[in-house]
Specification:
This protein is α/β, with parallel strands linked by helices and 390 residues long. It contains 14 helices and 12 strands. It folds into 2 domains: 179 residues, Glycogen Phosphorylase B (Rossmann fold); 171 residues, Glycogen Phosphorylase B (Rossmann fold), CATH 3.40.50.2000. Helix content is 41%, strand content 12%. The strands form 3 sheets. The protein has a 6-stranded parallel β-sheet, with helices on both faces. Strands 3-4-5-6 form a 4-stranded parallel β-sheet, sandwiched between helices. The chain has a two-stranded parallel sheet with strand order 1-2. α3 packs parallel to α4 and α6 packs across α9. The longest helix is centred in the first third of the chain and has 17 residues.
Length: 390
């Protein structure tokens, strides 16, 4: 596995660690992507180590920010170095190469200039050429990628991000609320995870200002080796008295923070998959999320959350009040998210990965290791039945 370390400093490293921990019959070693040493020399050395290792499969976790060059307008530009060298070396020492896309950038002309869009298309072609198989963590990721590079059925799969069912907090909600200084009868609304602009923490704070009788919990801080400290400081400075900002939580405290709230709010502006939502699912918390395709898909397929347009803080505040006053609706969301959690556990995700590896190593073209799903369906106009089962 080529990924960031699983020490809690990066969500992708945590994801990699959780997949590896769930493997049965697959031995893994992680080659860490340095977060503080982004140089061409580092990524060249990393590619050399990956190819020199005795592993049968080299599996790279790809997120543009992991391969970025500070100050560059081209997302993940050091990927040209890493994947270019990886591809050349693989011609000499044949291994199976798998790349997981945690997101796929496909900006519009209004969002990025022509040079950046052309660069991203070339990068996607390079990754497809170097890889034996591409894994996407959502249907939207696969759909975006295939606007640049069409894949055959055996070249790509959509796997669930996975829910860590083994690392939930073994505490009652009342005890979790007390841990963070709340009375058990006080309604608590939370946004968990690292503080970053795309996640809409500023919207969360605006909503809190509109609901002074409800406690709001920002369960996280700026990623230790990220670049969002100034944004996190602005959020803390603007937060009204009913908002608590915990700062980064360790692996023991974070699940407790997830057990405390009555409702999770994820006002993300941009998302193609969400490990944070899966952490909420692990703790079986009801979720109100932004009205974007990824969350609409989960709402339609599972009824495991509700969506709302986050560009209107007053509408978000109204929906929060409505949900907190409707225990039957909250119970339905908890029941549906429990179904989502059971079906998308890391045990099942790890089994999908192991099947893929064995298929690639056996050379079987027809084994069932998953195929790219079709483009995501349009959002449902009505919520799924609360009693529907698979």
């Amino acid at each position: 596995m080529v990924s960031t370390p699983g020490d809690g400093s990066c969500g992708i490293g945590t994801y990699t660690r959780d997949v590896c921990d769930a493997f049965d019959g697959v031995e893994t070693e992680t080659l860490p992507i340095a977060q503080e040493e982004r140089t061409a020399a580092h990524f060249a050395a990393l590619a050399l180590r990956a190819m020199a290792d005795s592993a049968d499969v080299v599996h790279v976790q790809h997120e543009y920010g992991l391969f970025r060059r500070d100050g560059s307008d081209y997302p993940g530009v050091f990927g040209l170095v890493f994947f270019g060298i990886l591809g050349v070396l693989n011609l000499l020492r044949r291994k199976r190469v798998v790349v997981t896309f945690h997101s796929v950038l496909k900006p519009t002309p209004e969002e990025a200039r022509f040079g950046v869009r052309l660069y991203l298309q070339c990068m996607h072609y390079l990754l497809a050429a170097v890889s034996d198989h591409l894994v996407f963590l959502s249907e939207e990721c696969a759909e975006r990628f295939e606007r640049d590079v069409k894949l055959d059925a055996d070249d790509g799969s959509v796997f669930s991000h996975g829910v860590n069912t083994a690392k939930t907090a073994d505490v009652t909600q009342a005890a979790a609320k007390r841990r963070f200084g709340y009375d058990p009868d006080t309604p608590v609304v939370a946004i968990p995870g690292f503080i970053r602009p795309p996640k809409g923490h500023d919207v969360f704070v605006q909503v809190a200002e509109l609901l002074p009788d409800i406690e709001f919990l920002v369960a996280g801080g700026a990623r230790p080796k990220g670049e969002d400290f100034e944004f996190a400081e602005r959020i803390a400075e603007r937060a009204p008295e009913n908002v608590t900002v915990t700062g980064v939580l360790d692996d023991e405290e974070f699940p407790v923070a997830l057990a405390a709230p009555d409702l999770m709010v994820l006002p993300y502006r941009v998302v193609t998959q969400s490990g944070t939502f899966n952490w909420c699912a692990a703790q079986e918390r009801p979720v109100l999320a932004s009205d974007v395709p990824y969350f609409r898909h989960i709402e339609c397929e599972w009824g495991a959350l509700e969506t709302v347009a986050v560009d209107d803080p007053e509408a978000v505040a109204e929906r929060i009040e409505r949900l907190l006053s409707d225990e039957d609706r909250l119970a339905t969301l908890r029941r549906n998210v429990r179904r989502y959690k059971q079906r998308n556990s890391f045990d099942n995700v790890a089994a999908d990965h192991a099947k893929l590896y064995r298929t690639l190593l056996s050379g079987s073209e027809n084994a069932d290791h998953g195929t790219p799903t079709p483009p995501m369906r349009a959002a449902c106009s009505a919520r799924p039945s609360a009693s529907a089962d698979d």
